[in-house]
Amino acid sequence: MNEHLFFQRALSPWMNEEGPDSDIVLSSRIRLARNMRKYPFPTVFTNEEAMQIVQLFERLFSQKSFDRIGSFFLLKMNELQSIEKRVLVEKHLISPHLAEDCTFGACLLSEQEEASIMINEEDHIRIQCLFAGFQLKEALKMANALDDWIEQHIDYAFDEKYGYLTSCPTNVGTGLRASVMMHLPGLVLTQQMNQLIPAINQLGLVVRGTYGEGSEALGNIFQISNQITLGKSEEDIVEDLTGVVRQLIEQERMSREALVKTSNIQLEDKVYRSYGVLTNSRIIGSKEAAQCLSDVRLGIDLGYITNVPKTILTELMILTQPGFLQKYAGGALRPQERDVRRASLIRERLHQWK
Length: 354
Description:
Helix content is about 45%, strand content about 15%. The protein is of the alpha+beta class.
């Protein structure tokens, strides 16, 4: 495989799959934080120790192929251009912290991009598995299989009382972060989302934007994840999150049905106005594009628009981010240049389906 594909394709191959409840749940993710007993944590290790850890994983995975996943490809942060790192962040394959602050960090990526292992981020190892739709348990199964294989070769920092030891106390215990990416325009349009967020937080879960902590929920896309990692098993954490997500799915569907019943013509008008903006604009900012794409995806799910694939929201939300726009342009772009290129790219993509 040519490693440049990681930076050229907006949609990871797994995103093309039709997962359960994919009209509302865009993706499911499991992330496990782990550290090695023999090395200081990344907050205090030396550059030399960081390079040793990368070399260790390079050797460990060089000849390994997994049944479900295949082979992994190592990408070193200090060998990537800043735009390439930004592209990986926009595809949710690495964190902003690894891209911006970890000179001697690296990432192991599977060919289909459903699995990635960040090295020398906040912890020595962060295993991440991504599935289309609502498939938390399947993602956990894959992550645990990778974790078990790595543990056969590496002595983890583990305490009988506290569990897996991590750089941040909020990850101690299972080291597990389970999350789902949800498209919730119905709850936003019916003004229920602002009431639901505090209630979700009281259950030990957190609601964030598209790119995690501190990010905005562009295009009505919200990330729901667990906060508690200590005192519960991995299965219990996933089960708790699953219960809340199922309730949100039900409430989102009810909200969409109510909108169709009470405001059908207004909703259809909103969808087609956004479709018109996307297919005709010559300049469009990222926030406006995200909102219009959300409206169009809602229109697809409700059957108003039948000639555009569902994946258009995910594809264009990623493809029109600054990293991808500049990667395709072959260099840095000023903000207005990005807005022009974003509009052009969206028009080209949507005209394919006319």
